[in-house]
Amino acid sequence: MSVIAIIGAQWGDEGKGKIVDVLAEKADAVIRFSGGDNAGHTVINPRGEFKLHIVPSGIFYPRTACIIGNGVVINPKVLIEELESLKSKGIEVGNLHISDRAHLVMPWHLLLDGLEEEKRGRGALGTTRKGIGPAFTDKTARRGIRTCDIVNLENFKSRLSEILETKNEILVKIHNLKPLDFNSIVEEYDAYAARLIPYIKDTTAMINDLLKKGGKVVLEGAQGAMLDPDFGSYPFVTSSSPLAAGACMGSGINPRRIDCVAGIFKAYTTRVGGGPMPTELNDTTGEYIRQRAHEYGATTGRARRCGWFDAVVGRYSTQLNGFTSGILTRLDVLDEMDTVKICTAYKEDDKIIDRFPADINSLARCQPVYEELPGWKATTSNVRDFKKLPANARKYIRRLEELIECSFHIISIGPRRDQSIIIKRII
Ligand code: GDP
Ligand code: IMO
Ligand code: MG
Predict the structure, then answer these.
(1) Cβ neighbours of residue 28 under 8 Å, at least 6 residues apart?
(2) Global pTM?
(3) Does 134 contact ligand 2 (Cβ within 6 A)?
């Protein structure tokens, strides 16, 4: 396979970072294509434990080009800090490349993300407050500032002056804040530019040249399908598309080039932030999963909401993304359960539905319809061969495959690189 898209199939935090780290060994390039530093991708490998927010998870392989694609919004301060932190742990970052078309997170985006959340009060979305929504809003509204704009200081000043006036009107007149100072922003962003310019280039041309030569590319998704602004639990979603279609948009790879779309599914469900989650468990089982799996956000540290696997979401995700492979993670978290449940449909009032509703009020009324399977009560984290998994674990996996209409090709049974059962090679 030459182009593989790794897509979060649920509400994010499925273990994309771990899987990309596993696959990147054989890849010539790893490309982040959406989101920004709202993402938190954990990688545990022989070099240590890392939480990556904006740097692609292939960074540990010096011969793999790591590209921050045009579809990502970049907070330059966070990126520079992340690069420094990697370097301090002995990780070379010379293989990083930044698209000259990627948009920048600006100081007003951070302010507005927080202010808008405050204004929503009890209806707050629970964003990561990293300025992601406001940055993508500006991109679409054609008032964004891109990495190519900071390469030349005079161009940057002129673009900033066009935009800052309106932003300051919003900050002053609507939010009663002081205006942001033009010169301070110029100084700050010029210093970032000095650090980042060596990495900024036409990555789309670079990727397409690589593909022409037969190179292998891994597209690293951020977030998950149910956070997609069109198809997810709107308005409790993020602001760029985490779907396979978004991988083309955010990298400049055309859809005909993608050979494998791998959906990463956690063996249960988690969600951070607001919005309905039909299988959420507000009980001791939910708390047990959170503690056993240490389900706390890699970006904000917030406790993740935990619940059983939602196959309505899984099937919908397969349909939206066209998964050719499934990757099941965190199976080991369920090792001690007496029984495991799978949500096969929703009950909305008196109606049984098997699709994910558009209307958030409808989703909030949906009660899960469960199927219960026996647990396996055995440790799986040392297993490396599918046939050696306990019979009940295999039954659980096979039933999930039927329900989500996609076969699993990798089963992850621990956070480390080597804790993976490869059923079928996808790279
Ligand atoms: P991402 O955002 O999709 O990359 O996922 P996160 O890194 O936010 O969250 C996934 C968490 O699960 C991380 O703490 C990983 O180290 C951990 N993890 C990944 N795969 C497995 C697995 O198979 N078993 C266990 N126990 N932990 C895993
Ligand atoms: P990774 O890549 C889980 C959630 C936030 C919030 C909503 C909107 O690690 O899987 P935003 O800051 O994007 O405007 O917040 O989206 N969210 C994530 N949840 N994993 C993520 O990324 C997320 N990125 C954003 O919690 O509910
Ligand atoms: Mg995460």
Answers:
(1) 63, 64, 65, 210, 215, 216, 217
(2) 0.98
(3) no
